[in-house]
TrEMBL record:
PANTHER family: HTH-TYPE TRANSCRIPTIONAL REGULATOR GALS, LACI-RELATED TRANSCRIPTIONAL REPRESSOR. It comes from the Bacteria. It comes from Ilyomonas limi. Residues 7-61 form the HTH lacI-type domain. This is LacI family transcriptional regulator. It holds the Pfam family LacI. Keywords: DNA-binding, Transcription, Transcription regulation. One of its GO terms (molecular function) is transcription cis-regulatory region binding. Coiled coil: none annotated.
């Protein structure tokens, strides 16, 4: 069978020796079809890479002009900016986007990928969930030559194009800034280290300490899910450290803001007692008291670059198969939360 064309219900029916109507009903989980037959149909459909024909009018060209986007959260200024960037590139080229939301769950990410595959998207742009370790749910796209681009949260094992920043350098820069403010006991609060963004920020933090001959204490690296509860608990753990740390680098702004408020509620002065730096330049960083020092990288630009690269590939302008990693710039934005030495 020619795998370059779309698999149809007629192909499945022919292989199983049943009618196309039976296949159609089985794929719709119609109770008139026995569980045994439904199972055979569904398994063969998955094996052959069948996609539900929800856009029949486009079958001749096998193009839907739809791009799928999978993101791990929606309450982040960075992610909403990235989506806006993708949408700008898509709209300019007469594409539309469909968004799948994993809610930081690998299970939901798999479901979102499956749904977008069956929506017959022409390409996929994804930022991985907190706990994704297996990328096999993207195989159906790759097997159908549907291009996949990962952005921000990526997996280095994937051969797909990636759009990222240098998280190692950014982590180093944030830590070095705290050291230059006189900090010597710097805690790092980070997320799941299977994610490139957190592992590389940690590595940058560690190297900055080493380069300044500052001993790394295991207790000073706090790894959690960066949720509200975990952020408050991290701050409480810091409050029980003796001697008290004099600096904190947190891998996410909202978590940094929550840590900072918990410390302030306990009578800690920011930055006089503990200097704080975050990451992402989310809107919260500009409304904390004091305002939060952070690493800024442009979500809109990252989304626009990912979207444009995907569309250029689809239109034959460039070839993603020869593009590995696109690294964008980031910068340290210094605000009052870290300025132990004051402005100067």
């Amino acid at each position: 069978m020619n795998q370059d064309r779309e698999i149809t219900i007629y192909d499945i029916a022919g292989q199983l020796g049943v009618s196309p109507a039976t296949v159609s009903r089985a794929l719709k989980n119609n109770p008139s079809i026995s569980a045994f037959t439904r199972s055979k149909v569904v398994n063969l459909a998955a094996e052959l890479g069948y996609r539900h024909n929800t856009f029949a009018s486009n079958l001749r060209t096998q193009r839907t002009n739809i791009i799928g986007v999978i993101v791990h959260e929606l309450n982040s200024n960075f992610i909403t900016s990235a989506i806006a960037g993708i949408e700008k590139a898509a709209t300019k080229a007469n594409y539309t986007i469909i968004i799948g939301h994993s809610s930081e769950s690998a299970v939901k990410e798999v479901a979102a990928a499956k749904n977008l595959f069956h929506k017959r998207v022409d390409g996929l742009i994804a930022s991985l969930a907190y706990d994704t370790t297996d990328l096999s749910h993207f195989n159906s796209f790759i097997e159908k030559n549907i291009p996949v681009i990962f952005f921000d949260r990526v997996d280095e094992r994937s051969n797909s194009t990636k759009v990222i920043i240098n998280n190692y350098k950014a982590g180093y820069t944030a830590t070095q800034h705290l050291i230059e403010q006189g900090c010597k006991r710097i805690v790092h609060v980070t997320g799941n280290l299977i994610r490139n963004v957190y592992a590389e920020r940690l590595a940058g933090y560690q190297q900055a300490l080493a380069d300044n001959n500052i001993t790394l204490h295991e207790d000073y690296v706090i790894t959690n899910d960066l949720s509200e509860e975990a952020s408050v608990q991290a701050a409480k753990k810091i409050l029980h450290m003796h001697p008290l740390p004099d600096g904190i680098f947190v891998a996410k702004d909202i978590s940094a803001a929550l840590c900072m408020q918990t410390l302030k509620d306990a009578g800690i002065r920011i930055p006089q007692d503990i200097a704080v730096a975050g990451f992402n330049n989310d809107a919260v960083s500009r409304v904390t008291d004091p305002k939060l020092t952070t690493i800024n990288y442009n979500g809109f630009t990252m989304g626009e670059v990912a979207g444009q690269k995907l569309i250029d590939h689809l239109n034959g302008v460039t070839d993603l198969n020869i593009t590995s990693t696109i690294t964008l710039k980031s910068e340290l934005i210094i605000r009052a939360s870290s300025l132990k030495k004051g402005k100067g």
